[in-house]
Amino acid sequence: MRLTNVAHLRLPFGRLLGYDVHVGPPGRSLPVSFDQRRHVGAGDRAGSWMALSFRLSEPVPPDALAAAWLAVIARHGTLRSVFVPGEDGQPRLYEVEVFPGDWALHPIAPGQAVNDALRDVLDRACSPYGRPSHRLCVLETAAGPTVVVAADHSHVDMWSMLVIARDLLAALAAVREGRSPSLPPTPAFAEHTRALRDRPAAPDDVRRRWAEVLAAGGEVMPRFPLSLGAATLHQERVEVRDVLDVDGSAAFSAQARDDGVSTLALVVSAMTAVTRELAGTPLRAVFPVHSRYDATWHDSVGWFITNSVLESTDPDPRAGAEAVKEAVQMGSWPLEDVLRPWGGMPEAPGMFAISWLDLRRLPVRVDATGLEAQYVGATIRTDGVMLWFILDESGLHLRCRYPDTPEARRHVGTWLDTLIAHVQSRASVGGRLRLGDRTYRVQRAGRADVPALVALLSDDEIGRTREGAEIARYEEAYDAVARDSSHYLAVVRDEHDRIVGTMQLTVIPGLSRGGTTRLQIEGVRVAASERSLGVGTAMLEWAHDHGRHRGATLAQVTTDRDRERAQAFYARLGYDNSHVGLKRAL
Questions:
Q1: Can you give the pLDDT at residue 102?
Q2: Are the C-beta atoms of residues 221 and 338 closer than 8 Å to each other?
Q3: Are residues 49 and 378 in contact, defined by beta-carbon separation less than 8 angstroms?
Q4: What DSSP state is assigned to residue 237?
Q5: DSSP letter string over 9-71?
Q6: Segments of the chain scoring below 50 in pLDDT
Q7: Which of 42, 65, 135, 563 suits 142 as a labelling partner, its CA being 20 to 30 A distant?
Q8: Each residue of 66-93: pLDDT tens digit?
Q9: What pLDDT is stored for residue 440 in this prediction?
């Protein structure tokens, strides 16, 4: 899913509408979490919100969208709560009733960008002390509406935005079908705040480690290791980068598996190497970790994030894995108690934070590609560096926010460029097949590889009679395959860069078998000089991993009836000859 900023958001032009709900007076008092107190205690301000936008394929009556949104609000307690300044200056949180409201048209002035108009609306509506501090907007176009749901960060995190989008779509589907849009209840975030306060205090070793990391940074939270310019708030600069595509992400994940670590740990390893290279210091950063410590909270909306600190001194991937493990452990205890010796979180200009979200592993899913969904951040003034990584089915993406000063542009820009090059270098080799003391590489085929692939396809009794068209025909076929990302035409190269194998992999979504996605394997060939060495088996194992990475749960392969050795080969790999394949010429 694209992770962007409101200034970079891709929006069509249309009528901008917002839904104004009515809110009753403050009711029952609710507990305020540590992070909510920090965030809201900074006061009302623009740019404290986060949002998610997605596009619907057909027009939706405003009343239907409003009914669905009210059902979402009714399900999630944090969307029915408001902050009020206390007499001591500390925020108080109260439960409120939310009633149906009205749609308001937000004019877009001549020459004004849609993004700017939307930002103005969300800055006004989604402030910490807003009543409520969330907003449903819709951009109406002839091609269908773009929906934007936004809320002040005190009530949501990125996971929550997915929950809201999923629930809104479910309620909207019910309204369209003439059913009630009501959604089953789920625990409110206030209950989580109470539960977190009742957890045991952090053990002494955790407190000691916090003290060591903070002391290494001058008794404040970790700061970016290079100069950002004057230590004051500046207009932000936001960079949005696609670090790895789906193939690169798969290769990077394979490298992580080879190293015996997670993908996150391998990225931490890269960041450690880059920080040592450019700044001569260990990697130290604020590291948000989620506090949805069991399935009770998976469907709830709230700020289920607590902060930890990540310290990584060694670029070895296994050391990176240990650093991540330690950071998660340090963030698993109530911070209000841990940070009491510092009077709360000891923030300072230049604070450096790294956030990681693997959408593939979340129990909450939406069709981000079909919906053209985008996470949207607000525009703010900042004095620190915030880095977000998103890993999804399309690859690895990042967004970085830092002060727009000459020093920060140079230093953060160089750090990002070096990091991305480092990460891409770990993914550029493609997949590896290791057989004894030999190593083969699996890569997506290039157009220049077509003659070699045709030679492999022709190198047997059946291929000799079936192949042999003009090379231009094969090149046209290659172009068609390469344009469709669901296909992976693979080449296998040996240590001398010679092409010794090929196969074509196709991921096929389907409705049958409960919506099973299949991996179709075709055209498997191994050069005569490499046969009977285990290359074919290794290729198929790699293909299975390729399919799993893209959501496939079933692999299928076809081979000619006369290829008895091939049939025996596939049977040894667990393929069951359970179906009859039929073909006819067209």
A1: 97
A2: no
A3: yes
A4: E
A5: ------EEEEEEEEE----SEE---HHHHHHHHT-S-TT-EEEEEEE-SS---HHHHHHHHHH
A6: none
A7: 135
A8: 999 999 999 999 999 999 999 888 999 9
A9: 92
